[in-house]
Each structure stands twice: as structure tokens, then as C-alpha cells.
């Protein structure tokens, strides 16, 4: 016999929090990409109604801002001691690794990075450069732009891995001899590390120059 008094009580539905929304949004984006993120779809994954979701976030853009800032939370903050070059390398490598773990993030890096996690990492980078003696730590822009540009290029190219650019260029070697010989495919990790070393060496040169 089915009777309300004979049924086992259901576990209460977990209360919806902003943290839970962001966690589920990141999972959705990791699995399905930015194009599949809608407020209705996110609400379904959270097993709640859109009205409840809108109480916490007003728009899809809010969700994307929060999800992107959650990615920056994965970047380890460096300590206050140690060589500035190593600190910069570690911070930039961690920044890149976090973004690459969530390739969708590369498609929304054009938005202002105003979240507390992104700002804390940028603040840390500025602090490292000021402590190293840079009177104007604007090199931070070059470093962060290099990381984000590198990630965007890598994600874009890896989405087109089926294209045989080597064959394409070899067929046009008369017009593009250098590209035909050396190609456009490369080791992303090695290329990133080399480019970062070029930037740091340039910064060392500026630091050693008399003002």
C-alpha cells in the first residue's frame, strides 16, 4: 500500500548557493563549452528553477564572469621571498596551466578581469616587480598579455589539428620557403617557455639600465 506516512522521507534538496552555481557552471563549460551555457540549462543541472537561479545571478554574462574568476583561483600565489625571475615564471606558468585546463576560458578573455581571484594574481605580479626594483611595473601587462595570447592561440590551433598545414605550406614553398622549411606546428610548452624567457631577459636588461 502506498501511503505518504509509509514512505521514507526524502533527503532535503541542498540549498542553492553562489558557490554551487559557479562550480556547476565550470563543470558545464568544461563538458559542453560556452555555446551550450544557458540559464535554463544551468538551472536544470542544478535541479532548480530559473527563478531561483536568477535570485543569485542576473545574466549569463554574470555566470561567465564568475566561472572565469574561479579558474584564476586555481593559480597558486607565489610567496614573498625568492628570486623575482623564478616567481614570475612560476606565476605565469600556473596562469597558463589553469586556463588550458579549461579551454573555454580562452574564448572569453576579452572581458575585464575584475574578479577577486584574477585581481589577486595581478596584484601579486605587480608586487613581485615592485619588490624587484622596477620603478614602473607595466611589464606586468606584457607578461599577462603574453600568457593569454599564447593560450588563445594554442586552443584555437588545437581545435584545427585535422588540418595538415605542413602539406599546405610545402605545396607553396616557392612563396613561403621559410614556413615550408620550419612549419607552423611546434611544441607548445617549449615555445611558451622560450618566449617567456625572452620577455624576462628584456626586463632584466631594462632593470640594469640607469634611469
Report what the structure shows.
The protein has 211 residues and is mostly helical. Helices cover 62% and strands 0% of the residues. The protein has ten helices and no strands. The radius of gyration is 23 Å and the shape is flat. The protein starts with 17 loop residues before the first helix and ends with a helix. The mean pLDDT is 89.
Distance between the terminal alpha carbons, to the nearest Å?
89 Å
Shape: flat
- Beta-strand content: under 5%
**What's the SSE pattern?**
HHHHHHHHHH
What's the rounded overall pLDDT mean?
A: 89
Produce the secondary structure layout:
Elements: H1 18-32, H2 39-45, H3 50-56, H4 60-72, H5 84-101, H6 116-132, H7 139-158, H8 165-170, H9 177-182, H10 188-208
Brief rundown of the structure:
Helix content is 62%, strand content 0%.
Features:
211 residues; 0% strand; single chain
